Structure formats: C-alpha cells, structure tokens
Automatic annotation (TrEMBL):
Membrane-spanning residues: 48-66, 73-93, 99-117, 138-162, 200-221, 227-245
Homology family: Belongs to the 4-toluene sulfonate uptake permease (TSUP) (TC 2.A.102) family.
Lineage start: Bacteria, Bacillati, Actinomycetota, Actinomycetes, Micrococcales
Superkingdom field: Bacteria
GO cellular component terms listed in the entry, alphabetical order: plasma membrane
Keywords for this protein: Cell membrane, Membrane, Transmembrane, Transmembrane helix, Transport
Cell location: Cell membrane
The keyword Membrane is annotated on this UniProt entry: yes
Membrane topology, as annotated: Multi-pass membrane protein
Protein name: Probable membrane transporter protein
C-alpha cells in the first residue's frame, strides 16, 4: 500500500466517490477526480489506478441504464475511437506529463467552446452528414484523451449534449461507451506499466467509496432537471479542463 498522508487519503476518498457519482448522475465530474488523482499520485501511476476504479463504476452505470443506450450513436463512434486510442498509445510513448496535461486541456476547452457556439446558433448533429463529422471528430478526441489521461468524459459529454440526448439516454449511452472503452484500454495500460501492485491495493481501499458514489448518483439522476443536468456537465467539464491547463 502506498504511504500517503491523511490529507492525501481524504482527497483520494472524495475523488473515488466522484468517480461513482460521475458514472450514474453527472458526467464530466469525473475529470475532477482524474485531476485529484494526478495531483496526489505520480502521474503514470494515477492513470492506471483510477482506470480500475472507473471500470468498477462502469458496472453500476451499465446495470442502471443498460436499456437507455443509443446504439446507433455508439456504432458511429467506434471506428474513430479505435483510431484515437492508438494515437493515445503512441503519444504516451513520447510525451512527458506536462505535455499530456496541456494538450488535453486545450482540446477540452476547444470542444466546450465549439459545442456552446453550435447550441447558441441553434444547430445540432441532426442530419446524417453532421452525424458522421461529429462522430469522427469527437470519437477520435475521446479515444485519444481516454487513453492518455482517462479524460474522455468531458469530450463525450459535449458530443452527447450536442446530440440533444435526454438525461437517461445520455447516461445509458455514456455507460456503455465507457464500459467498452475502459475494458479495451486494460491491455495497453498493463503493457505500458500503468497498473501496479501498489495501485491495486489502493483501489481495494477506495472501491467502497466508488460504490457509494454510484448508488447516490442513481438516486440523484431520477430527480435532476434536464437543464440543471446540462449545466452541471458543462461546469464540471470547464473546471477539469482549466485545472489540467494550469
């Protein structure tokens, strides 16, 4: 088990609860958890450690929203996501932590700006051409950011918001997307040495908080207003992106 101060344990505990909450109620909040892990643990170790917690939370998200997924959207995203993951693996092989954080932050802020501009202009990914372009763009960015820093939540949240999904459809599509993507990342993470024995022990201690956050999020999702839901997604996305940039 890693030797950490009580403050570090407290921060990791909060982050673990946020991981669960983000999967079942507030997508985008997970970026805050990623930032906390990166601040408390060595960058490479934090990536592998939080990945396993994300997979645990994915199980609860899929069980809760498995019937609400938009499979047409997921199939459109699949080819671009694979390309993004491969690019992420290549990037991790040559880039240092500072480059990773800044590149992802710039991408996230750019995506937020583009999405808000599209919505202000009353446009969405409603026609076939827009679907293909949006899926290729967001899918590649999502695959890249999830591989290098587990930070695809904000990117894909912007895509699902642009597609005007309802709360349940949003959460169901996101649940299946991240469950499949995170499982596909395991071999790469193991090969890159991101998953370690100390990280596994740390995960065992934090799993109960992930479960608690996921169950609380399920309760919140049944009561949250659509407009408030969308605003929370955008706010958490911006907070996470700014933290990474600084």
């Amino acid at each position: 088990m890693p030797e950490l101060t009580w403050l570090a344990w407290a921060l990791l505990g909060v982050a673990a609860a946020i991981v669960g909450l983000s999967k079942t109620a507030v997508p985008g909040a997970g970026t805050v958890a990623v930032a906390i892990f990166a601040a408390v643990l060595p960058a490479r170790q934090s990536t592998g450690t939080i990945l396993l917690l994300l997979i645990v939370a994915d199980v609860f998200a899929v069980l809760a929203y498995r019937r609400h997924a938009n499979w047409a959207a997921l199939l459109r995203l699949a080819p671009a996501v694979v390309v993004g993951i491969v690019l992420g693996v290549l990037f991790l092989a040559v880039a240092d932590d500072a480059w990773v954080k800044r590149v992802i932050a710039v991408i996230l802020l750019s995506v937020i700006a583009l999405t808000l501009l599209r919505r202000r202009m009353s446009r969405s990914v409603a026609d076939a051409g827009s679907h293909r372009i949006a899926a290729a763009t967001y899918g590649t960015l999502g695959g890249f950011t999830t591989m290098v820093a587990n930070a695809a939540g904000p990117v894909m949240s912007m895509y699902f918001l642009a597609a005007r999904f309802s709360v349940k459809e949003f959460l169901g599509t996101a649940a299946w997307f991240f469950a499949l993507v995170n499982l596909s990342k395991l071999p790469f993470s193991i090969g890159l040495g991101l998953i370690t024995v100390p990280g596994l022990l740390l995960d065992l201690a934090l799993v109960p908080l992930v479960v608690g956050g996921a169950l609380f999020g399920r309760w919140v999702a049944d009561r949250i207003d659509q407009v408030l839901f969308e605003r929370l997604v955008i706010v958490f996305t911006i907070v996470g992106a700014v933290y990474l940039l600084l």
